[in-house]
């Protein structure tokens, strides 16, 4: 449904998968992949959002590298250069903003590893007016620096994002005066929305997607 394009993001090879109707004023979504890389799950999710009427860009933060095992994904995540990824993500959102027009609104959606950048982008780009998180959080100044609404989807049983940590994350955002809605999905674990993983739970994934689309339409118009 979509296609890849090259991003101008410094010295690293950078590309982005794009899908949807990039008409002037179209609501835009930046999809930020998990630690597996820009794999088929992420591309299919981008296509699904595009089918709902959004202009979607999914930047490749790992230079084409894709992991299938936790061990290899950990290596990719630990080797990642945050400054380089910042440049790639910014290049993707700037390209998306150029294509949908200066007055269009954009949301940032991150899976696990990508969740940090979905919270960071609104602090550096005014066009980004909402953050969506799939079983991923972050900490530090980005939680209070932005004022955009946050939607979070979290698993019931998740060693990476424990219930206590998610509660603390939510409380910090709410205390900063931000609108935040957190959903927890019974009977799920980390990666429940990714079809290639054993943890995939279709009913929970579909419900999370429906809630995401409703959130995006409410805040992007």
Nearest-integer average pLDDT: 95
Quaternary state of the chains: single chain
Structural class: alpha/beta
CATH top level class name: Alpha Beta
- Fraction of helical residues: 25-40%
> Tell me about the biggest sheet?
8 strands, mixed
Overall number of strands: 8
Instruction: Provide the CATH architecture.
Output: 3-Layer(aba) Sandwich
Number of helices: 7
Uncertain ranges: none
- Stated plainly, the CATH topology is called Rossmann fold
- Please state the overall shape, judged from the principal axes of the Cα atoms: globular
Q: What percentage of the residues does DSSP assign to strands (E)?
A: 15-25%
Question: Strands, helices and their partners?
Answer:
Blueprint: E1 3-6, E2 15-19, E3 28-32, H1 40-51, E4 55-59, H2 70-79, H3 82-100, E5 106-111, H4 115-124, E6 128-134, H5 142-145, E7 150-157, H6 163-175, E8 180-189, H7 202-220
Parallel strand pairs: 3-4, 3-5, 5-6, 6-7, 7-8
Antiparallel strand pairs: 1-2, 2-4
Structure, described:
The structure is a single chain. The protein has 7 helices and 8 strands. It has 221 residues and is of the alpha/beta class. The protein has a single domain, classed as Alpha/Beta hydrolase fold, catalytic domain (Rossmann fold). An 8-stranded mixed sheet has the order 1-2-4-3-5-6-7-8, with helices on both faces. Strand 3, helix 1 and strand 4 form a beta-alpha-beta unit. The longest helix is centred in the middle third of the chain and has 19 residues. The protein starts with a strand and ends with a helix.
């Amino acid at each position: 449904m979509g296609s890849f394009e090259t991003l101008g993001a410094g010295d690293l090879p950078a590309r982005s998968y794009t899908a949807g109707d990039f008409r002037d004023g179209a609501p835009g979504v930046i999809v930020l992949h998990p630690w597996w890389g820009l794999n088929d799950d992420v591309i299919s999710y981008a296509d699904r959002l595009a089918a709902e009427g959004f202009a979607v860009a999914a930047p490749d933060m790992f230079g084409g590298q894709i992991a299938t095992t936790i061990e290899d994904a950990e290596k990719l995540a630990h080797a990642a250069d945050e400054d380089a990824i910042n440049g790639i993500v910014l290049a993707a959102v700037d390209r998306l903003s150029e294509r949908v027009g200066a007055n269009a609104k954009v949301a940032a959606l991150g899976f696990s590893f990508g969740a940090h950048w979905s919270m960071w982008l609104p602090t550096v780009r005014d066009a980004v007016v909402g953050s969506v998180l799939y079983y991923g959080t972050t900490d530090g100044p980005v939680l209070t620096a932005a004022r955009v609404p946050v939607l979070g989807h979290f698993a019931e049983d998740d060693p990476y994002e424990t219930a206590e940590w998610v509660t603390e994350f939510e409380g910090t955002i709410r205390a900063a005066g931000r609108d935040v809605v957190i959903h927890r999905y019974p009977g799920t674990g980390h990666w429940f929305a990714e079809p290639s993983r054993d943890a995939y739970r279709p009913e929970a994934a579909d419900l999370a997607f429906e809630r995401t689309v409703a959130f995006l339409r409410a805040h992007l118009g």
